[in-house]
Structure formats: structure tokens, C-alpha cells
Amino acid sequence: MFVLVLGLCPVLGVSTQVSNAIGMSAGVLFVLLFSNIIISALRKVIPASIHIPAYIVVIASLVTITEMVMHAFVPSVYSALGVYLPLIVVNCIILGRAEAFASKNSVFDSILDAIGMSVGFALGLTLIALIRELFGSGTITLFPMGNFGGVINIPWFYDNPIRVMALAPGALLIMGYLKAFFDWNTSRKKDK
Amino acid sequence: MSYIAILLTFIFINNFILVQFLGLCPFIGVSKNSENAIGMGASVTFVTTVASVVTWAIYYFLLVPFNLQYLQTLTFILVIASLVQLLEMVIQKISPALYKALGIYLPLITTNCAVLGIAIINISSSYNVMEAFVAGLAVGLGFTLAMILMSNIRERLDLQPVRGSFRGMPIAFISAGLMALAFMAFDKSLITNLHLV
């Protein structure tokens, strides 16, 4: 994700809390996995001239399913993700993988590709959310389970929050620094 | 909400790029020089305005009567994709000069989250058709504003000595972050203070 800079809108929009990042990643994993399976299974049936509209229909139906499932089982995440959830449809990663990989490879390879891509997406998204939530409000929000309320307070950060990190500018600043860090890391490996 | 309030909201307070992060891909991708930025901004404004009205009409005249609201995402993306295609053909026929200026940006707009985003927000804020039209226009104008600002910053950044790994994309993100910081000065109190609600 940091290398490709694809699918950015949801990344910056939902990364205010770790739980939202995980919910979003789950949505992307589901949609990407099934869109890759369906498209690679149908790759010989779909005529080349209308392949993009066909992919969009497949992806949009899967996103609608995801929306309905999330609305039913995790309403809090559903309302937190808001407009970003239907926007998975226009996430460049999904259409990009359908076009670049699933339309040319077998179903099994496409499944592996989808899992790899979404794990990368989930890691990047959770990393940004972790940094933003830690510095912005000093908490880490997970899902409530049993007598665990779902919110971990980090002692020092909780008393000294840097509010701007949780707001819009923080997302862009952190994205810039992380991108610089990963670029530096890549170029350092190349030099060796 | 009055129309001026909607305009101010989507141009400044909830600027799609800098506050909501919708439409970031072209923002980072196409903002390398100001000519392209203006072209992209103009095309997006055109499409968001038309798409707002068309998706609004489809939602209320087609989906609601048949209780098909859950098909919203699916219908909207198809409508936007065909709308962009249609606009491309119409502009090419009517005004070849405009087509030359905007042509290359039009296909990119289908996958721009700003267009689908405003279509969905129009419905979820239950705007009427006129408000949806104004919101679509305002989103486009806000997008254009951010694009022009960003492209000017990046044209200057090209001439500055930026250190190693920060060159290019990272420094663009950081400048955008600082710009978003400036945009935080606009908030909802602006509308209340101007007595627009």
C-alpha cells in the first residue's frame, strides 16, 4: 500500500480508531477475495470489450452484501465507517487486482493474491490507525468482549493527547512520514 | 439548510479532499502542474453536479417506489460510469475544443470517490433536488480549489532542495497535511455566526 499508494481515500478516512481500521480491512478482504474468485472463474466468459463494467457490477454487488452484513452484525462499525464502506466499490486496489491479476490467472492463484493484497492493506491501515489513535487520544479501541470494555487506555498518552493527530491533518502528515520511511527503507536495501 | 450554507460546507468546512479524504488519488496523481489541475477540477465539477442530480432522481423516482434502496451502491456506480461515458460522447460532438481540454481526465473520474461520495451523501442527508445540485457543484468547486492550491505548491517544491526519501510523494502528503491544518480554521461555527441556518 505504501509502495503503490492505491486505495488511499478509505485509508485516511477510517483510520481514526483501530477498531474501524480492522472493520474496514475485513470488508476489503471479503470483497477482494470474492471478486478475485468470481472474476477469475468467469475470465473466459466475460467478453473483453465490456470487462470493466462487468467487474464493477461484480464488485458493487459484493460491497452491497458486505454493507448489509455489517449493518446487521456490527452496527457500531457500520455507522463509524459511514460513507467509506460503499466507497470500497471505487477502491483502486480491488479493480486494479481484478484487471491486473484475476483476469489472467487461475482461481487458486487469485485467492492467494487476494489474501496477500488484503493482508498488506490491513497491516498498513492498522498501523496508521494505531499511530493516530495512540497520539491523538491515547487509547486503543478494539471490540468489546465479555467483561473487557474494548478500550485500552495508554497511561502517559491518555493525559497528553495531540488532538490534531486524530483529526484530518494528522492522517496526511503521518501518511507522508510513513511513505518517506518506507521509501528510505527500500532504497537502503537496494544500496546493500 | 440554505444554499449558501451548503456551498460553504462543501467548499471549506467539509472540503472533500482535505477533510474527508475523498478523491485523493487524482489529487496526488494529477496535481503535478497547475494546467492539469484546473482541467481535472473543471471535469470533476461538471460530473459531480450532473451526477448529483441524476442519482438523486434515480433514487427517489426509481429505487424508493420499488423498495430497492439496498441497490443504491450498485445502481449509483453504474449510473455514474455510464454518465461519464455519455458526457464524453456529448462533449466530443458538441464542443471538440472542450473535449480536447477535458477529454483525458473524463475516464479517470468514474473511479473518483468524490463523485460516488457526494451521490451517497446527498441521499443520507436527505437533500431535496435543488440542494443536491448545489452540493454537487460545491464539492466540485472545493475539489478544484484544493487541486489548484496543491499544484502550485508542488510546482514550487520541484525547485526546492528536498532531502532524499522525502522527495516527491511524501513531501506532497506533508504539504497537504499542513494545508488541511489551515482548513481546520473553517468549522461549523462559521455557518452559525453568519446566521445561515
From TrEMBL, chain B:
GO annotation, biological process: electron transport chain
Subcellular localization, as worded in the UniProt entry: Endomembrane system
NCBIfam families recorded: PRK05151.1, rnfA
Protein name: Electron transport complex subunit RsxA
Gene: rsxA_13
GO cellular component labels: endomembrane system; plasma membrane
Topological category with respect to the lipid bilayer: Multi-pass membrane protein
Keyword Transferase: no
Keywords: Electron transport, Membrane, Translocase, Transmembrane, Transmembrane helix, Transport
Pfam families hit by this protein: Rnf-Nqr
Transmembrane domains' residue ranges: 6-30, 37-62, 68-90, 102-121, 133-153, 165-186
